[in-house]
Amino acid sequence: MDHSNSALARYLPSPLPVIHPVPEVEAEDELLEVYQDTKKILRAPWMGVVTMAFAHYPHFYQTLWQGLRPALDSVAFQRACVDLRHHIEHCVTQLPVSRLTSRLSDLGYAEAEIDAIRDTIETFSAGNMPYLLLATQARLLLEGHALSNKTSIERLPSNSSETNRSALSLMEPHHCLPDTLELYDRIKKQLGLPFVNTDYRALARWPSYFLEAWDDLSKHLATPPYSRIVEGIHQAATDLALELPNPNHLTPSTLQQAAAKDANLQEVLSVVQLFQYLLPGLTANVAVFRTQLT
């Protein structure tokens, strides 16, 4: 099996698939347990839209999750997340990002408020890495690419799966005043996506800040340097995903057969491709937000 970068080209499915994520606040019984376990093992205080959309296909997600769960709770996976984050944050230094701290002070933000924004950005800076790697492994498997044949793992200490970060406060559309709703529409249009990611809904808790942050970021979205950065993040995630241990021997055929029990295989694949496409850009954008407040 070819494990070179060319094994997985970055791809946005067309037409965009319809996704059916079940929000955390509506999850009950077995699904709630799945969500809690996902957050615990990924060390994230929120259930990403990606995994909520995957969980709509229960056989697929159960097979993916149980197949990869030991590896996701390993030292190797944690190290891959750290390496991926460092790569992303180094890459965005190539962009002429504006510094916004003084601007926020001029708007009336206290230092404690700016620190709260930084803390929220830090949550996503760390927490998006496992979601990107998980989505990349899911796409590799559904497209027929074998994962690593490494089976030995070093488990993380039992307390390292804990996160000290509190639950996020999200600005859902029904919470928003017209200016924020207009910004959400602009985000979807500029990114070519049918929804607004959790990261943006969390940062929109500070509407005047987020408008400034998005306006600065949006200047870069259509530029060649930004495109090269996002492509590089995709390739780095692919390389890491192919090297991670696979102690449960999860195979393409096993995951494909599970997905086919839930829906047409192409439907499930399109949903996976959508998230695996958008997450490199999302991680780059969060790194830009972080740089804006340094």
Structural overview:
By secondary structure, the protein is an all-alpha fold. The chain has one domain (28-153, 160-292). Helices cover 62% and strands 0% of the residues. The protein contains 12 helices and no strands. The protein has helices at 29-42, 49-54, 58-72, 75-91, 101-107, 111-142, 178-191, 198-203, 207-218, 224-243, 252-262, 265-292. The longest helix has 32 residues, at 111-142. The termini are far apart.
Jot down its keywords.
disordered N terminus, 294 residues, 0% strand
How many extended strands?
A: 0
Oligomer: single chain
Runs in which pLDDT lies below 50 for 5 or more consecutive residues are: 1-5
Tell me the span between the first and last alpha carbons. 43 Å
Structural class: mainly alpha
Tally the structural domains: 1
How large is the radius of gyration?
A: 19 Å
- How would you state the average pLDDT, rounded? 93
Helix content: 55-70%
Q: How would the global form be characterised?
A: globular
Compact overview of the structure:
62% of the residues lie in helices and 0% in strands. The chain has helices spanning 29-42, 49-54, 58-72, 75-91, 101-107, 111-142, 178-191, 198-203, 207-218, 224-243, 252-262, 265-292. Helix 4 (75-91) runs antiparallel to helix 10 (224-243).
